[in-house]
Specification:
By secondary structure, the chain is α/β, with parallel strands linked by helices. It has 16 helices and 18 strands. It has 2 domains: 174 residues, FAD/NAD(P)-binding domain; 238 residues, FAD/NAD(P)-binding domain (3-Layer(bba) Sandwich). The strands form 4 sheets. Strands 1, 2, 9, 10, 11, 12 and 18 form a 7-stranded mixed sheet that branches. Strands 7-6-14-15-16-13-17 form a 7-stranded mixed sheet. α1 runs parallel beside α8, α1 runs parallel beside α16 and α10 runs antiparallel to α15. It binds flavin-adenine dinucleotide (FAD). The site of flavin-adenine dinucleotide has 38 residues, from α1, β13, β17 and α16.
Length: 454
């Protein structure tokens, strides 16, 4: 029986949508199945009462997001739609905010580091600059750091570098535990994206890329795929009431979900999938009647709250500083990110209790929050970010060298890069692997004339 589709994609996050976009550009018939009623996955935004709320990802960077920028250019998204943030990131220490984290001048200003630690920061920067060529962000498994964890790497330097720089960055942006996640992907990523001065956000919400990709693709939302099976040349998606056949499937879902959906993966894929664990993430969006932000002598958009200072929060983000259109004029939008240690409790707690615990903790940094807060939204991600453990890093080379087959994978975890750029790169990679396997038949891959989006 001839398969219905050339390619069926599971998951309409940026990885799945990028894969579908590339495959459709190559003339294949592609359909994306998404269990949520909307596209975007962990890079979604919603609009409410004049506020634009980012439920997952917050920003991208001018540097280190090569595949994203190429895709945006192809989609015709102007640079103006991805403006520079322009405000600072600070770290909380000794009762106050120290701005300038991950800026070049931090070596001089300290950004919360003691004078002795600044010397070690200069050493760390010099060490990584000398080895820049050894850090390829497509191959974090090939760096001189091997499988050392972030905590082991940081132990070479003054304690402050762990406590007031690497732990707060890992904890807030990736939800990582520095004693579990490896340093190689972190250093590769920091070298690639460069100082915070180059960080940008999508003007209209972080879902811009997903929305633009989905326009012009056949995306079926609100449909859960329960199982994926395959023989030599056909993949089958088992949905509640139908089985969809395709010449290839791309599983663009977090690794633990992919492992559950497709239980007969080849050994090198199965091993990597089970090693690719995820950290959960939880954040609360606070819709404010005033534009409040953490107190600092410079405009801030992120206040990092290190573990040694705060047990509940990992950071506070002022979304209306990130971009003024995130909140109506004269109002504010704050995001409170939970520290990983509180997550097991919070993920089980009612939303009212989650809001209460996080806003109570945040009043240390934004004292008027209690009177300015109008409405709160909780966003919980059971698969928040790929952890990049030593086990995953150690197995990645074999996974990447595997042969092609009817079931391919996409997702940030494929690149061991906890960012949307990792997801975009993985989507393009999955598409190229599918195209390498499917024989091109004359006339078979004529561009599609019909487009549907649901
Ligand atoms: C709190 C947070 C903050 C972040 N901040 C940033 C940031 O500032 N910058 C940055 O670049 N990155 C950031 N990231 C990471 C970024 O959001 C992700 O790397 C990226 O969105 C992952 O995309 P993906 O397509 O791989 O996976 P996902 O977005 O998870 O997409 C997978 C999709 O598959 C669907 N799905 C799952 N199971 C099924 C099923 N059985 N059937 C059908 N569909 C299914 C899901 O609903 C989802 O839509 C952040 C992530 C989080 C959680």
């Amino acid at each position: 029986m001839t398969p219905e589709l050339d390619v069926a994609v599971v998951g309409a996050g940026v990885a799945g949508l990028t894969a579908a976009h590339e495959l459709r550009r190559a003339g294949l018939t592609v359909r994306v199945y998404e269990e949520q009623p909307h596209v975007g996955g962990r890079m979604r935004s919603f609009r409410h009462d004049g506020y634009t709320v980012d439920t997952g990802a917050e920003q991208i960077s001018s540097r280190g997001y090569r595949a994203t920028w190429e895709l945006l250019a192809r989609l015709g998204v102007p640079l103006d739609d991805v403006p520079r943030i322009g405000a600072s990131i600070a770290v909380r220490r000794g009762g106050r905010a120290h701005p300038g984290v991950a800026e070049r001048r931090a070596v001089l200003t300290g950004a919360g580091l003691s004078p002795r630690a600044r010397v070690d920061l200069a050493r760390l920067l010099a060490w990584s600059a000398r080895r820049r060529g050894a850090f390829d962000d497509d191959h974090p498994e090939r760096t001189p750091l091997g499988t050392a964890t972030v905590a082991e790497f940081a132990a070479r330097y003054h304690r402050d570098l762990h406590d007031y720089l690497l732990q707060p960055l890992c904890g807030s942006f990736f939800g990582w535990d520095t004693s579990r996640s490896t340093a190689a992907p972190l250093i590769s990523l920091l070298l690639a994206v460069g100082p915070t001065a180059g960080w940008r956000t999508y003007r209209d919400g972080m879902d811009l890329l997903a929305r633009r990709l989905a326009t012009g693709l056949d995306v079926v939302t609100g449909r859960t795929v329960h199982q994926v099976t395959a023989d030599l040349d056909t993949a089958r998606l088992h949905l509640e009431d139908e089985v969809v056949t395709a010449r290839a499937a791309v599983l663009a879902v977090p690794a633990p979900v992919a492992a559950r959906l497709h239980t007969t993966a080849a050994p090198e894929a199965a091993a990597y999938l089970s090693a690719c664990t995820f950290t959960p993430a939880l954040k609360v969006s606070c819709l404010l009647d005033r534009p409040l932000a953490p107190v600092c002598d410079r405009p801030l958009y992120v206040l990092l709250t290190p573990r040694v200072e705060d047990r509940v929060l990992s950071c506070v983000i002022a979304d209306h500083v990130k971009h003024p259109q995130r909140a109506p004029a004269g109002k504010g939008l704050l995001t409170l990110m939970a520290d990983a240690r509180t997550l097991p409790d919070l993920l089980r707690a009612p939303h009212s209790e989650v809001v209460d615990r996080l806003t109570t903790a945040a009043r240390r940094y934004v004292p008027e929050l209690g009177t300015a807060g109008r409405q709160y939204f909780v966003h919980a991600h059971s698969h928040g970010l790929p952890e990049a453990t030593a086990a995953a890093l150690g197995l990645r080379a074999r996974f990447m060298a595997r042969g092609t087959c009817p079931v391919e994978y996409a997702g940030d975890w494929v690149m061991l890069r906890p960012s949307s750029e990792g997801a975009v790169r993985s989507g393009a990679l999955a598409a190229s692997r599918v195209l390498a396997r499917l024989p091109r038949r004359a006339g078979r891959f004529a561009p599609q004339s019909q487009e549907t989006t649901s």
